[in-house]
Amino acid sequence: MTTITPTSLSNTTTMPKKTDLLALTLDQLKEWLKERNEPAFRAKQIYSWLYQQLVTDFAAMTNLPLSLRTRLEEEASIGPMIVRSEQHSKDDRTRKILLELADGKLVESVLMLYPPLGESSARATVCVSSQAGCAFGCTFCATGQMGFDRHLSSGEIVAQVLHFARELRTQAWSAPGLPGTTPIDHITNIVLMGMGEPLHNYNNVLQALRILNSPEGFNLGARHMTISTVGLAPAIRQLSQEKLQVNLAISLHAPTNELRGQTMPINKKYPLEELFAAIQEYIAVTRRQVTFEYVLLSGVNDTAQHAEQLARLLKPLQQFAHVNCIPVNATSASYSTPGPDAIRAFRNILFERGISNSVRAERGDDIAAACGQLRTRFENRVKKTGTELPVITPQA
Ligand code: SAH
Ligand code: SF4
Questions:
Q1: Which protein residue has the closest C-alpha to ligand 1 atom 9?
Q2: With the CA atoms of 181, 185, 191 and 194 taken in that order, what torsion angle do they form, in degrees rounded to the nearest 10?
Q3: CA–CA separation, 236 vs 281, rounded Å?
Q4: Could you say which ligand is closest to the alpha carbon of residue 330?
């Protein structure tokens, strides 16, 4: 059984420390109950209340004896955190929350809603944060510019998903103006693309995904989960050995060491040769396609020459590589988004060289969609007004 560190289980500000049940796998919950002389079958009942009924308090767990409910109130919690702000984009396809954790740290989570398109059914994807801040300092990234605060516990990661799951359960979403759309009332996908570097917080992230994968609980398939990484080569190798076969996305963003080193400091530690050796190994072990994220920065990494270099770099991976072109969400004056012609030209070169690719549709711009931007805005407002954490009014 995995050992749990006290920090991954406890609420750090209240005394006595309560166990966050959202940080526990089913087996760990059984163990926790056993230590309190409770039968193991109670764990399944509690799991069902937490992840299928999506309850937020122990009083609602009506098939548990009152004595156990009272004990749970005293000794356990269900992912405590405060929603500081919730914003919906004008088309309501993007919803973003700013969460305050038990120690006052702020993180963002985003829900992205997609109506059905052709063969593919409707999706509700949660973009989850894995850390408060980030240690890797990519120059185009708002989170990277904040520096690193701390890792999130597995319970804090799970809680972000449950927040939106509850919201959709309460009110299912349907695409306005699209006839025949079945309302979507549950989360279909999770992407670790919020604040922080998930593979830097490896154990807590994997634990959270295992909890969400549990058939007795939330029951979300590993194929519906994606970890995005800045390129921590040893952790990519480790991930290839996991039983939980989640999708992998690599933040590449430049086709040469020279250019990548300018925007992504991690490239000095794990240059492209080392990163690609780890990716080759990951593909050899898992036989799974890898997505390469490529943030397009106008005039920096989006020329025809860059596209040629990118195609050459990925060619050896053949059908196992897919490029996702992401027009940059400008966080500062230093970068701008290429126009549609430049994006088309870049993608055409990739297509001509046989590299499968797509472009991420821009969304949620009106609510500062790139992770880190909402917190940055929020904190700037606090600094400017000198007030304590103002709540931003959700947009219509
Ligand atoms: N740390 C991980 C996951 C979080 S970032 C990583 O770097 O992969 C998720 C994705 O958003 C990454 O591909 C990241 O490069 C990208 N991103 C960061 N800043 C962005 C911006 N301003 N515009 C568009 N994408 C951005
Ligand atoms: Fe961190 Fe990812 Fe942002 Fe880079 S892009 S600073 S790794 S969150």
A1: 193
A2: 110
A3: 9
A4: 1
d(CA 31, CA 33): 5
Which residues on neighbouring strands pair with residue 273, listed in sequence order?
none
**Alpha-carbon gap, residue 250 to 280, rounded angstroms:** 12
Q: Given the structure tokens 């089913």, which residue do they identify? A: 26
Cα 184 to the chain's mean position, in Å? 20
Nearest 5°: the CA angle 312, 316, 319 is: 105
Determine whether the shortest distance from the Cβ of 94 to ligand 2 is under 6 A: no
157-169: pLDDT as tens digits = 999 999 999 999 9
Mean pLDDT, to the nearest integer, of 134-163? 96
Tens of pLDDT, residue by residue over 222-274, are 999 999 999 999 999 999 999 999 999 999 999 999 999 999 999 999 999 99
Residue 230 beta carbon below 6 angstroms from any ligand 1 atom: yes
Burial string for 130-160 (b: 16+ CB within 10 Å, else e) reads bbbbbebbbbbbbbbbbebbebbbbbbbbbb
Strands 189-192 and 356-359: unpaired
SS3 assignment for 278-324: HHHHHHHHHCCCEEEEEEECCCCCCCHHHHHHHHHHHHHHHHHEEEE
Q: Are 43 and 19 in contact (CB under 8 A)?
A: no
pLDDT at residue 177, rounded to an integer: 67
% of residues, the chain, pLDDT over 90: 78
What is the reported pTM? 0.91
Written as six digits, the tokens of 54 are 């999506």
pLDDT digits (tens, 9 = 90+) for 46-75: 999 999 999 999 999 999 999 999 999 999
DSSP code at position 105 = -
Q: Which ligand is nearest to the CA of 141?
A: 1
List Cα–Cα distances, 201 to 11, 12, 104, 205, 368, in angstroms.
18, 18, 19, 6, 25
Active site residues: 108, 371
Distance 336 CA to ligand 2 centre (A): 18
- d(CA 77, CA 72) in angstroms, rounded, equals 7
Contact in structure between 2 and 27 (CB atoms under 8 Å): no
What is d(CA 73, CA 133) in angstroms, rounded to the nearest whole number?
31
DSSP state of 190: E
